[in-house]
Amino acid sequence: MTNRIRVGITGYGNLGRGVEAAIAQSPDMRLVGVFSRRDPAGVQLLDSEVPVYSIDRTEEFTDEIDVMILCGGSKSDLPEQGPYMAGLFNVVDSYDTHASIPEYYASVDQPARESGHVYLLSSGWDPGLFSINRLMGEAILPEGETYTFWGKGLSQGHSDAVRRVPGVKGGVQYTIPSETAIERVRSGQLPQLETRDKHVRECYVVLEEGADANAVRHAIVSMPAYFADYDTTVHFIDEATLKAEHGAMPHGGFVIRSGKTGQDNDQVMEFSLKLGSNPEFTASVLVAYARAVHRLARLGDIGAKTVFDVAPGLLSPKSPAQLRKELL
Ligand SMILES: NC(=O)C1=CN([C@@H]2O[C@H](COP(=O)(O)OP(=O)(O)OC[C@H]3O[C@@H](n4cnc5c(N)ncnc54)[C@H](OP(=O)(O)O)[C@@H]3O)[C@@H](O)[C@H]2O)C=CC1
Ligand SMILES: N[C@@H](C[C@H]1CC(C(=O)O)=NO1)C(=O)O
């Protein structure tokens, strides 16, 4: 296929690998290269034919990449990489530190506008698809309550945050929903639930040699925007156990809007996900939004966008006429 969308990946971890695989499933796209902070010779891709470059070389590729997909961690990587890449490329990222999204939006909007690029931030499933469903629920059922539950599963954002704590060599975080809270919601009680009522968080951590376990535990459980508002447990394990027992990354969850319409009828809207691989699903969302960003850029649009700003049809490889014929 000629005129394929030329995509770059910055950051090659779980999500970067998932984006590589998702691009391979997209005949209208071509992966130009992967950019990493590590020595390119030490980064093994799924497809050995795709080149790996040092992240220091990204400026050489501004005319060769239509959309750059940032796959770094939201806690530390994207706050630095996002504003920089916004000045060079059309970008898609999965920034998911919910409490800081307004500030992050502003930090990428200015460089994107000044350089004439589109920057789609906070794509994925939450934020992302769940955000869209929370919006739809509130718009359609103005009288009601919205609830979001995740897991049991591995949160990549929280796992990334754990791995950034000084003294941590490796780690993962599982999110576990309260069955009691879910039952109260599903029974139509419209309960008022606090953050701590809905989920607990469980971390499995490998310590660096000589690290202080109590200091690491405190740094995790008190971490603002990630763990401070939850009951969090930290287990210390060895590296072999982490590799043997915590390599899979399933996840999922659901958004429910429960409310009443104008003649007092009960209505429930629900959107749910069951994910065999959190990173691969998230990556597939990013790649679909990369298609939309490329189209918006070609239409002359610029600046920061969220999933609320993107018409769903732009995500599809099908033409508007095909979509009207097949999906309406
Ligand atoms: N919005 C949403 O719904 C979702 C968002 N996310 C976001 O995705 C982010 C990335 O998650 P994930 O891919 O699991 O994070 P990883 O820890 O796997 O990767 C983060 C970065 O770390 C570096 N890295 C990866 N592996 C290694 C290694 N072996 N040695 C040294 N550095 C390494 C890579 O950068 P480099 O190549 O430059 O070294 C990579 O980009 C999360 O922080 C989260 O915020 C995830 C899921 C859902
Ligand atoms: N952003 C999340 C995606 C979902 C999962 C989640 C959680 O378990 O807290 N919150 O949002 C991730 O990084 O996995």
UniProtKB/TrEMBL annotation:
| Subunit architecture | Homodimer.
Q: What is this protein called?
A: Meso-diaminopimelate D-dehydrogenase
Catalyzed reaction equations: meso-2,6-diaminopimelate + NADP(+) + H2O = (S)-2-amino-6-oxoheptanedioate + NH4(+) + NADPH + H(+)
- Which parts of the sequence belong to the Meso-diaminopimelate D-dehydrogenase C-terminal domain? 124-277
As for family, the record states:
Belongs to the diaminopimelate dehydrogenase family.
The record's annotation in NCBIfam families points to: DAP-DH
Query: EC number(s) for this protein?
Result: 1.4.1.16
Pfam families, per the entry: DAPDH_C
Query: Could you say which residues bind substrate here?
Result: W150, T175, R201, H251, N278
The Swiss-Prot or TrEMBL record annotates one GO molecular function as: nucleotide binding
Q: Which residues of the sequence carry a binding annotation for NADP(+)?
A: 12-15, 36-38, 71-74, 94-96, 123-127
Keywords carried by this UniProt record: Amino-acid biosynthesis, Diaminopimelate biosynthesis, Lysine biosynthesis, NADP, Nucleotide-binding, Oxidoreductase
From the UniProt record, give the pathway where this protein acts: Amino-acid biosynthesis; L-lysine biosynthesis via DAP pathway; DL-2,6-diaminopimelate from (S)-tetrahydrodipicolinate: step 1/1
Q: Which InterPro entries match?
A: Diaminopimelate_DH_Ddh, Meso-DAP_DH_C, NAD(P)-bd_dom_sf
One Gene Ontology BP term is: lysine biosynthetic process via diaminopimelate
Q: Which domain of life is it from?
A: Bacteria
What top-level class of enzyme does the UniProt entry assign? oxidoreductase
